[in-house]
Structures are given as C-alpha cells and as structure tokens.
C-alpha cells in the first residue's frame, strides 16, 4: 500500500503542477513537471496512506503557488539563497506532508506503530485535532537550524563553493577528470577572476586552477 500510494501521490502532484503551468503560463514545463514529482514524493513520505490523491493535489498546488507566485512577490522568499527551489520542493512540501499526515492518519495503522492510544487523524474526529497540532510542533523543530546557524555556519565559504563541496570533503561525485582532488588552501583560496594565479599554480591532472 505504501509503494502504491507513493507513486499515486507523485503522479497526481506531477499532473497538478503541469496543469497549473498550462493554465497560468499557457505551456507545460519539464522542470515544472520534475518539481511536481519531487513535491509529491516529499509530501507523501510521512504518510503513504489512503489519502495519496488528496495529498498529491495539495503537494502539486501549494508548493507551485509558493514557488511561481509568492517567491516573486514576497521579498523574504526572493531573498533566500536557493537556486534549485529546495525551500518550495522540500520545506513547503515537507511541512505540508507532515500536517496532512496529522489530518489523514488512520487509527488502526497508528496503533501498529505508536504506543500512544487513540492516535488518529483529524478527519476521524475525537483526538484527531491534537495529532495535527503534534505534527505542526514537530515541523517547527526547523528552528533548531536557526539556532545552529548562530554557532556553526551552515553555508560553505565562497572560496570552497568555487571548487564544489565534493572536493572539499575529498569525494568525487562524477569521476570524469581530476579524480581524488581535495581542497587545498594554498591553491584554491587564491582563485579569482584574475587569471594571473593560473601560472603560479600548475594544473592538477586535467583540472587546472583558474
């Protein structure tokens, strides 16, 4: 059931996102279709229950609205350093999935996993409203990242971003050339638009410092 509903939600979210692109921008988008699939998968992760189609509709529309409409009108969102739209496809869709899980959580399935009695989604009445509140409180734990940012930087320095996080950690994401190259302070911190450094530091394999 979890596998089936995961695919149903992703497919529904894909269709809704594409429909919205066609309705408002008069043409579909491959990138938009992929974003729709991602938001569907993110949204259904905590649930994968019977409400997959409903969650797919929500995950294909709410993140679409925040990315395509709000992101251009709300300065707070447009100021976020988020080239790939992760705020919308993961933060918004993940929060949405958590809240909807509190809404649609099936009592018998909850009893299989939770020691707490009478756990149920909001649509089942009773204590269901409390489950939605629990899901919202859980999602607000993202505030921990805001606290950590005051202690440890969460974003890599610019000089390290120039060579990529894989090289900084001594990893190779795509073994095309320069295999095994690691971040070297003596070479990489001097990288700039000034090409004079290229002569000072010779190339490493097929990878040359620019």
User: What is the CATH architecture assignment of the domain at 1-139?
Assistant: Orthogonal Bundle
Mean pLDDT, all residues: 78
| Total of helices | 12
Give the termini separation. 53 Å
Write the element-wise H/E pattern from the N-terminal end onward: HHHHHHHHHHHH
Family: Belongs to the ammonia transporter channel (TC 1.A.11.2) family.
Protein name: Ammonium transporter AmtB-like domain-containing protein
GO molecular function, one term: ammonium channel activity
Main location: membrane
Tell me about this structure:
This protein has 210 residues and is mainly α. The protein has a domain at 1-139: Orthogonal Bundle (Ammonium transporter fold), CATH 1.10.3430. The chain has helices spanning 2-25, 30-44, 52-73, 75-78, 86-104, 107-113, 128-139, 143-149, 158-161, 165-168, 185-188, 197-200. Mean pLDDT is 78; it is low at 191-210. It is globular.
Sequence-ordered SSE layout with sheet pairings:
Blueprint: H1 2-25, H2 30-44, H3 52-73, H4 75-78, H5 86-104, H6 107-113, H7 128-139, H8 143-149, H9 158-161, H10 165-168, H11 185-188, H12 197-200
Helix pairs in contact: 1-2, 1-3, 2-3, 2-5, 3-5, 5-7
Structure described in brief:
With 210 residues, the protein is mostly helical. The protein is built from 12 helices and no strands. It has a domain of 139 residues: Orthogonal Bundle (Ammonium transporter fold).
């Amino acid at each position: 059931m979890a596998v089936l509903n995961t695919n149903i939600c992703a497919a529904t979210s894909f269709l809704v996102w594409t429909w919205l692109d066609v309705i408002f921008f008069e043409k579909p988008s491959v990138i938009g279709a992929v974003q729709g699939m991602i938001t569907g998968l993110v949204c259904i992760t905590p649930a994968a229950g019977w409400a997959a189609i409903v969650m797919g509709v929500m995950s294909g529309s709410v993140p679409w609205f925040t990315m395509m409409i709000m992101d251009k009108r709300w300065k707070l969102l447009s100021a976020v350093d988020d080239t790939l739209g992760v705020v919308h496809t993961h933060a918004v869709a993940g929060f949405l999935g958590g809240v909807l899980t509190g809404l649609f959580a099936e009592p018998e399935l909850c009893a299989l996993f939770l020691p707490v009695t009478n756990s149920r989604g909001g649509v089942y009445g009773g204590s269901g409203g409390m489950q939605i509140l629990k899901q919202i409180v859980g999602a607000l734990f993202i505030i921990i990242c805001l606290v950590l940012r005051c202690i440890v930087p969460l974003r890599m320095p610019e000089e390290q971003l120039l060579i990529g996080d894989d090289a900084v950690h001594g990893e190779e994401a795509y073994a095309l050339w320069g295999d095994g190259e690691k971040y070297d302070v003596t070479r990489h911190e001097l990288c700039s638009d000034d090409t004079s450094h290229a002569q000072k530091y010779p190339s490493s394999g097929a990878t040359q410092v620019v």
